[in-house]
Design goal:
alpha+beta; about 900 residues; 6-stranded mixed β-sheet; 18 helices; single chain; 27 strands
Amino acid sequence: MNIESTRPAGRRDADSGNVRGKPRGLASRRVWHRMSAVLVCLWALVALAGTIGRRWRPDLGWIGLHAAALGVATNAVVVWSDYFTVALMRSPSTRRAPQIAILSALNVGVLALMGGIEAGVGPLQAVGALLCVLAVIGHVVNLGVRSAGALATRLGRTVLAHYVVCGCWFVVCGVLGFLMTSAGGSHLGVLLLPHIAAGVLGWLGLAVVGTLLTLWPTMLRTRMVPGAEADARRTLPLLCLAVAATGLGGAAAQGWISALGLFGYTACVGVTIHAMWAASRVKRPVSHAARSVICGMAWLVGTLVVAAVLMAASADRRRMLTVLPRLAWPLLGGFAAQLIVGSLSYLLPVIIGGGPGLVRRRNAVMDTLGDARLVSSNVAGLALLAPLPPAARAAALAILAANVLFFFAMVARCGTVGEPLPPATDGTMAERGRRLTWILGAGVVALAMSVAAAVSPPTAAGRPGGGAAAGSDVSNAPVQRVSVTGADMRFTPDRISVAAGTRLIVTVTNTDTGGQVHDLTLGSGVSSGLLPPGATAEVDAGVITASQEAWCSVAGHRQMGMVLRIVVDGAAAPAGQDPSGSSPGDHAVLDPDATMSVGARDAALPPVPSGTVHDVHLEVTEQVVEVAPGVRQLRSMYNGRAPGPILHGRLGDTFVVTLTNSGSMGHSIDFHAGDISPDDPMRTIPPGQSLTYTFTARRSGIWLYHCSTAPMSLHLANGMFGAVVIDPEGLPAVDEEYVLLESESWFGAQGAGEDADRLGVTAPDAVMFNGYAFQYDDHPLTARAGDRVRFWVLDAGPDEQLDFHVVGAQFDTVWKEGAYTLECGRQPSPEADPSCDSPGTGGSQALSLGAAEGGFVELVAGEPGHYSFVNHSFSYAEKGAHGVLEVTAG
């Protein structure tokens, strides 16, 4: 079939190429699709800038990726799916207002989403995600409205079904993306793979499959293969099932399920490719547009097969998170980009129109250097997947940039070929066109190569000339290459001797078997980036002129001794530098005039869950939170809270704990409540991985749990701790029962993590109950006069003593580390009355606990009032270990 024959326009004049009857509609359509092409090209420039900009800021890769997926691909799908629906359904509707509103909402949403992520503004992210989803929902509804009452064919209904279904997958993708960003990354490990599957395979993949059903034979100027429409209709639900399986496998960390989904998706795509092959046997694909589509489909199949094999071999979520996101760029760059280039190369000349002669001339413009562009861009794309040195990667990026910009030049050139130009009867005009094309192409290549030269300094994290002295000539300096391994908080070797004026290139490999993530960072800012176990990176330290240090920048690792000394021959070793890189006044301080802007942590002891086996899921997340009035710190937490959840049980209960590390470094967990070998359940797991920790509570007490990854003091001070409360046998009920965990904090700068260099060396900046200084001053705990109140108290540390005291009250019951020291005012004995109906006269004024010790005290406040509870080491009370028990009349 021919798309020209499906236009809802009037009769065409063979001589002039104009359309009679609806000239304004035709002109409007030309303007609309030219504007749409410009919009797609602008987003492509943003994607290209983000890709190049990651040389300086690696996180700009996110901008480039989403500019390609949401800006380029999504705009193209929305515009052209509307065009094909109207053409195939022969819809009489020509209204542009809904399309303009949809594209406006979509692009405003994309800008808001990307701006919100970049600026860290959560509400802006939410608005952007909502606008994108609503725009696609509106697009799907508009397709239904435009096709309602139209002359529907089976082919038209099938293609429309693909567009509607792929729109539903976009909604799924958008919701998953919003959940990931709104949770501060806490659901990244679970939702990332379903997000990619829904967006790339569901939204883009199904849109392409539906479009090729009619576009491919039109490109070849032949008829659709018999049976192709029926095959496409039958494979649509199978494609959806495959997308769902791929995503669910990722969510459940079951690589084999994702592999089955990917293999199934590949098989369904094979049906489309078979129909394309059958059509190409009737008429060969000779145009650049058709060959670009073939290359795009080859990238799709190749990437799907590789992804399926790798996912089948992935034993855990960490491995899956390592594999599949890396394939997003091949899918978007190799598959989607070439499909869009091929489609626009064919469709723009057709849409601009002007008669068969002008269409052919525009097709010839879009085909300029077609084979050279395809070969160079695909070879460069494959090269970027290989572990090339930085200079080679810069060259490959330059080739890709040249091809992108050359395509833009051809789009602009195509728009200038119109009715005012005389026919090129003697070849003069054609020769001028070719000459102009070559000039434009040479300019584009020169521009791309200059861009590559600007970004090509071979540094690992993107700061040019990391270790080079000012004015040193890197290109003429002798080069010294050294291999360094990092493991067990040490670099091996930890000292490198270099001749002055030598350019040093360090290949660093993380060989840590304990699951720790490491990097190598120089004082200039050049870094290898975080390396999971087994990963390798190359760091160019530049020309070395003076002795210096490099180190692992993961929190606490430098303080543990993970330092590499670079020594110039004949010079002294570099003096130890301040590991924090900051002056003593840089850290946050308690502000007595600041007010609490968050809710208080509920201190009530949660009830014991039903049953004797308790399934617990703890997820490690990282988030900036308020820890004292006016003080915000980056915390590593269990389930988004510090301290983590309070687990409550009875003797004999079994706890099955699943720990998932969704943080940026290695973490672990140690339950003092379990007496089991620490070798396996307490091991450090890298980001993206999970483990299961099972223990049975055989002894009563309030037990600390915490991250046991080195340096433990830093992880604990950063909030990675919690408590397990196991009731002693026969413990009587009380009126109010609270849990207080005391911990210390050494503040870093506002928004940063704990100051690892000061931790344990000087007095803490804050001492707090339940993770926030002074919170129970503003939000007192409550009781009534005559109530028996029980305080479970645990000193989480990591260092200081806790002397728990309630001002104005006396404890008649004290239970510490598994035994009563005082029970209802009497010495504990088997004959004692546990109900305290006849209490003795003994009392206690403080419960003294060392780090990791715990117990409980009970008191009865005889009259209303405000009873302060404190750490009686008053310097700590004045730093936040202070709260109020508000007693009201009974």
